[in-house]
């Protein structure tokens, strides 16, 4: 089963890469399924063969190199749910490559052997969420939903299979300022940082600001859980724990795009102490803890972190914001 799931991840990744390459708009792509960002003008097959682009698409890509877009994506979020028929999705964020982002960046010692093209791709990709120009997700469930932002609000489309087109069904998505649902893997609560433990227990028992008991809803697919949170309010969380001090979700192509989307819908996203969108990535697959959702719910959660006197927790948060590797 695991082998089939991995194969589906690879197939989805290849489909997205091929579709994106032939837009002629891209210089670099980053994916959860790739160790490093890749040049969009070069195709790498699953077997490892590298094929150079030829023809009008390659020419157009070269001509528009100065205006290249840089997408980062998780091709199949929640793939472990596939065999159970549970909702999965694709998450994406798009940056714009500029002269500044194309400059070589400081690389860790173990990456000093990269060639010039790899360094250029990495430099173009490592941008904070606040530099995103677009972000969104596709939810594959009982219907196929495309939800995205271009930095001017959030819109939602539904695939009409009879015409093969996405139809605008949610022209202006805004998240409620408060919700009554929280979404997280509560089985790990004993291992979370103390502020997150206390916050969840308070809203469970009606001791939070609203004095209402919140209900737990958790799918185990970020796209599915965030989609519900966006429409109905409340919050989604994947906090740090004793084993994963930086959480498990990837900053570049999961946490940052979803944070951009939620902020554009009127919500918030935080690591606890810091705005997710402000964190500069130190690597393509960097992980961060995240709490996102309704504005007032996230603000309430953040107060628990602000009241914490744990120096190690504050140090980790401060280091992320400085672009330092946390420990």
From TrEMBL:
One BP term from GO: fructose 6-phosphate metabolic process
GO molecular function, one term: metal ion binding
Top-level class of the enzyme under EC nomenclature: hydrolase
Gene Ontology cellular component terms for the protein in this record: cytosol
Pfam families cross-referenced by the UniProt entry: FBPase, FBPase_C
Domain Fructose-1-6-bisphosphatase class 1 C-terminal as annotated: residue spans: 175-305
Cofactor(s) recorded in Swiss-Prot or TrEMBL: Mg(2+)
Magnesium keyword on record: yes
Pathway: Carbohydrate biosynthesis
Reaction equation(s) it catalyzes: beta-D-fructose 1,6-bisphosphate + H2O = beta-D-fructose 6-phosphate + phosphate
Quaternary structure, from the entry: Homotetramer.
Family to which this protein belongs: Belongs to the FBPase class 1 family.
Protein name per the record: fructose-bisphosphatase
